[in-house]
């Protein structure tokens, strides 16, 4: 690990190795940005919605605990930027109110795609190993990364009007379809379009009229109906393919959404 204390930030560059079954527990008194320079899908973040792959970049508010587990051997490198909260609030207040800046810094964020950001993070790593410029340069790089991670802008301050673009909805749909119809954590849906989970949930409902959870359930029921009429799979097989905990769980969900059990719905369609 190499590190350097600048005026308002501390930047640390790590080269690390993780073994299967290893676990991590991280908490910082300061807001933190982390950028991973390698594929870190072998690291799972443990949360309320179940484990999910680590994103290539994360913003963690002060005091928030991050727990991880390694699923396979991994050698990787990453940059951590610990920042003074007062500096971060002041920096963001240049484009929003102080209240909005504080709120933005209280929400975690993550990005699966760090194209464009990786180069900026690399410049800061260079300043750790071989300082060539004043602290203001490192702080400016950190501010750019913070602004990009939080995805700040006028639209986020108007939650009643904000919508996902067609391209963003396409990326969310593609991410869901790639999972074969299994339930996907909202955090992973948000990561597909580089938004924080809370903000994504707001604009997703503005766009579709339903919550991300309801949208997923509706799509899973559509897939289930297609499998019931277009395949010889048993109800239990369909429940397993779509990621339900068991046949009973699938049957309850299907009956609640469609009004009858999967078996009854299949008989009705086959006899029609």
Automatic annotation (TrEMBL):
Assigned keywords, A-Z: DNA-binding, Transcription, Transcription regulation
Domain HTH araC/xylS-type: 170-268
Tree of life domain: Bacteria
UniProt cross-references to InterPro entries, sorted A to Z: AraC_XylS_family_regulators, Homeodomain-like_sf, HTH_AraC, HTH_AraC-typ_CS, Tscrpt_reg_AraC-type_HTH
GO MF: DNA-binding transcription factor activity; sequence-specific DNA binding
PANTHER family in UniProt: ARAC SUBFAMILY (PTHR46796:SF6), HTH-TYPE TRANSCRIPTIONAL ACTIVATOR RHAS-RELATED (PTHR46796)
Official protein name in the record: HTH araC/xylS-type domain-containing protein
């Amino acid at each position: 690990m190499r590190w350097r204390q600048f005026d308002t930030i501390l930047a640390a560059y790590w080269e690390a190795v993780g073994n299967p079954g290893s676990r991590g527990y991280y908490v910082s008194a300061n807001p933190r940005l982390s950028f991973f320079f390698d594929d870190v899908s072998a690291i799972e973040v443990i949360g309320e919605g179940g484990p999910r792959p680590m994103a290539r970049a994360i913003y963690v508010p002060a005091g928030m605990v991050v727990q991880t587990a390694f699923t396979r051997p991994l050698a990787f490198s990453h940059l951590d930027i610990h920042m003074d909260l007062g500096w971060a609030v002041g920096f963001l207040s240049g484009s929003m109110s102080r209240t909005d800046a504080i709120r933005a810094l209280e929400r975690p964020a993550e990005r699966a795609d760090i194209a464009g950001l990786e180069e900026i993070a690399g410049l800061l790593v260079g300043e750790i190993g071989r300082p060539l410029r004043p602290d203001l340069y490192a702080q400016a790089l950190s501010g750019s990364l913070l602004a990009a991670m939080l995805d700040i802008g006028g639209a986020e301050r108007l939650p009643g009007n904000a919508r996902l673009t067609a391209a963003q909805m396409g990326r969310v749909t593609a991410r869901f379809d790639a999972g074969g119809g299994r339930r996907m954590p909202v955090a992973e849906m948000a990561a597909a379009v580089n938004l924080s989970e809370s903000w994504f949930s707001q604009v997703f409902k503005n766009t579709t009229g339903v919550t991300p959870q309801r949208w997923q359930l509706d799509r899973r029921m559509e897939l289930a109906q297609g499998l019931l009429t277009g395949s010889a799979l048993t109800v239990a097989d369909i429940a397993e393919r779509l990621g339900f905990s068991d046949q009973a769980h699938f049957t309850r969900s299907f009956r609640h959404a469609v009004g009858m059990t999967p078996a009854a719905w299949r008989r009705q369609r086959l006899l029609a």
